[in-house]
Design goal:
It contains three helices and six strands; from the N terminus they run H-E-E-E-E-E-H-H-E. It is an alpha+beta fold and 164 residues long. It has a single domain (12-162), classed as Peptide Deformylase (Alpha-Beta Complex), CATH 3.90.45. Bound molecules: zinc ion. The site of zinc ion has 5 residues, from helix 2.
Length: 164
């Protein structure tokens, strides 16, 4: 197996839909470990989805502890967003589009369910940066990128160099 590396837009794999995970085995644990390693290697890494390392499985990792010290790492297998509330515009970026950030509509609050690495089901409500990150990573699992939510390229998309 080739070592995991970050796929960068416009790599076509970022546009593909993932398959649900059905076997909770050693290969899943290896995939999760590779995702965590690649996420941690990036200075802005607070979340990663399997297509970003070229794997079309419904697996993502969210770890916003860089921004919110109370947050714990979430390993999301087969995640589904059940409810979103309180839309708000937030500035956002993506490791696979390293040159841009954008203002786009996310939500202050999301309720979602997922399975952990052993297949156990969980449900949670997240708020703030964690909610945004969950929305962003779940989008990746369907081939959706944050730039797809940008309504006006002229006013809402910025080169990262001008971002604070
Ligand atoms: Zn991303």
């Amino acid at each position: 197996m080739k070592p995991a590396h970050l796929r960068i837009f416009p790599d076509p794999i970022l546009r593909k839909k993932t398959q649900p995970v059905t076997s909770f085995d050693r290969s899943l644990l290896k995939l999760i470990a590779r995702l965590v390693r690649v996420m941690k290697s990036q200075p802005h890494g607070i979340g990663i989805a399997a297509p970003q390392i070229g794997v079309l499985k419904a697996v993502a990792v969210v770890d916003v502890s860089k921004r919110d010290p109370k947050a714990k790492r979430l390993v999301l297998v087969n995640p589904v967003i059940l409810e979103r509330r309180e839309p708000e515009a937030r500035k956002e970026g993506c490791m696979s589009l390293p040159d841009y950030t954008a203002f786009l509509k996310r939500h202050k609050w999301v309720r979602f369910r997922w399975q952990d690495e052993r297949g156990k089901h969980h449900e949670k409500i997240s708020a703030g940066i964690e909610a945004v990150c969950v929305e962003h990573e779940v989008d990746h699992l369907s081939g959706v990128l944050f730039i797809d939510h940008v309504t006006c390229l002229k006013t809402d998309l910025f080169p990262r160099i001008s971002a604070s």
